[in-house]
């Protein structure tokens, strides 16, 4: 940002808990706050649980300020923090504290923005839908419609979500993704040393995400069984945290299908080991039923690993434009695409390079963060 540019508004982000095992929302808030601060924004992250706030934030002068709110008087301290900023940015429609924070913002004449993170998508609203509709009727819709803008990450999300806040406007901006630098990627060796099953000539498939029924891991296992039946050799790595009972259910399914010997449940993988794991695999596969942005998708592409996913991802047109394969979330359709792609692993490497170049341009952090800064400025000017 140039020295002559107007100073960005001061912004406060609120997220109930900063715990990485909670999923992609935490990651996207951390990345957004970090990049905004690097672009000269005065950023405050308020939370009741700062467990996984990056340690280096405390060492850098241009890092977000973290306010860990005490549970017994979080309202008063949140108000004090809000008094010191120009605009508030709330995350998820279902955190009930957000309705109180919206009232605080209104009482201080501060505009606020709400990111819904795919939680108003049709698939999400069809699951436990009655409870969600009641909450929207009681308080959630008022909170959404009082926002300067409801933030969606793709046009597809805005089309689905907008019906739940008819008197509010959407703002569509992609997430800020703290993508790995291709020049400093660790290479596949670290992952191979950590997970010896990677040291094989077999094709290597990777699923990396929170293990949840909506992610379609069961579909991937059934597709993997079809690959075996068709004579395709592979090793499948399933990485990510999940409820123990559900993980056990998936492991039992792999055994029942006869693919346990080449299906590896490796738990949560982070840092350089995660990046190395992407690089060590031929394909990243996310056969999800619903995904808002799917941070793992651009992350995989940034590591040069091509992607197979479904139209359940709101950003699937952008992911397809990056050279990825979009398929139905059905075992046979998925198996057909995997078999076709794995038949030419050299071509996969070319797809990986194409995807990396596209993602670097589309999600350039400086360009994307400027979109958020402009949104904050507009909110302040129109309050």
- Total E-strand runs: 13
Radius of gyration: 21 Å
Query: CATH homologous superfamily name of the largest domain?
Result: Glycogen Phosphorylase B
Number of domains: 2
Enumerate the spans where pLDDT stays under 50 for 5 or more consecutive residues. none
The CATH C-level name of the largest domain is Alpha Beta
Return the structural class: alpha/beta
Approximate helicity band: 40-55%
Give the count of helical stretches: 15
If classified by CATH, what would the architecture of the largest domain be? 3-Layer(aba) Sandwich
- Helix and strand element order: EHEEHEHEHHEHEHEHEHEHEHEHEHHH
Oligomer: single chain
**Spatial arrangement of strands, main beta sheet:** 3-2-1-4-5-6-7
Instruction: Give the overall shape, derived from the CA principal axes.
Output: globular
C-alpha end-to-end distance:
25 Å
Average pLDDT metric: 94
Domain Glycosyltransferase subfamily 4-like N-terminal: 23-174
GO molecular function, one term: glycosyltransferase activity
Keywords: Glycosyltransferase, Transferase
InterPro entries: Glyco_trans_1 (IPR001296), Glyco_trans_4-like_N (IPR028098), Glycosyltransferase_grp1 (IPR050194)
């Amino acid at each position: 940002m140039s020295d002559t540019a107007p100073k960005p508004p001061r912004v406060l982000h609120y997220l109930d808990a900063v715990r990485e095992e909670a999923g992609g929302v935490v990651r996207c808030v951390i990345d957004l706050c970090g990049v905004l601060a690097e672009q000269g924004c005065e950023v405050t992250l308020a939370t009741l649980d700062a467990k996984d706030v990056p340690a280096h934030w405390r060492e850098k002068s241009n890092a977000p300020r973290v306010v860990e709110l005490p549970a017994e008087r979080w309202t008063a301290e949140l108000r004090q923090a809000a008094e010191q900023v120009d605009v508030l940015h709330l995350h998820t429609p279902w955190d009930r504290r957000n309705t109180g924070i919206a009232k605080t913002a209104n009482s201080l004449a501060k505009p606020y923005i709400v990111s819904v993170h795919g939680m108003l998508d049709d698939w999400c609203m069809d699951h436990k839908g009655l409870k969600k509709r009641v909450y929207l009727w009681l308080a959630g819709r008022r909170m959404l419609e009082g926002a300067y803008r409801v933030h969606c990450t793709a046009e597809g999300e805005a089309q689905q979500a907008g019906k739940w806040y008819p008197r509010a406007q959407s703002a569509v901006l992609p997430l800020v993704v703290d993508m790995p630098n291709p020049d400093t990627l660790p290479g596949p060796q670290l992952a191979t040393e950590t997970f010896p099953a990677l040291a094989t000539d077999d094709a290597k498939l990777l699923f990396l995400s929170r293990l949840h029924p909506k992610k379609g891991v069961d579909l991937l296992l059934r597709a993997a069984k079809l690959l075996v039946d068709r004579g395709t050799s592979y090793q499948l790595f399933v990485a990510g945290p999940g409820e123990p009972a559900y993980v056990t259910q998936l492991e039992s399914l792999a055994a029942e299908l006869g693919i346990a010997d080449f299906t590896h449940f490796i738990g949560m993988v982070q840092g350089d080991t995660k990046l190395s794991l992407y690089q060590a695999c031929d394909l990243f596969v996310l056969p999800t039923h619903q995904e808002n942005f799917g941070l793992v998708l651009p992350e995989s592409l940034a590591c040069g690993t091509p992607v197979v996913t479904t139209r359940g991802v709101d950003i699937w047109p952008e992911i397809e434009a990056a050279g990825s394969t979009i398929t139905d979330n059905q075992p046979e359709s998925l198996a057909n695409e995997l078999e076709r792609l794995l038949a030419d692993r050299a071509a996969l490497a070319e797809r990986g390079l194409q995807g990396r170049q596209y993602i670097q341009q589309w999600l350039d952090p400086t360009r994307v963060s400027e979109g958020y800064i402009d949104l904050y400025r507009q909110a302040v000017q129109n309050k």
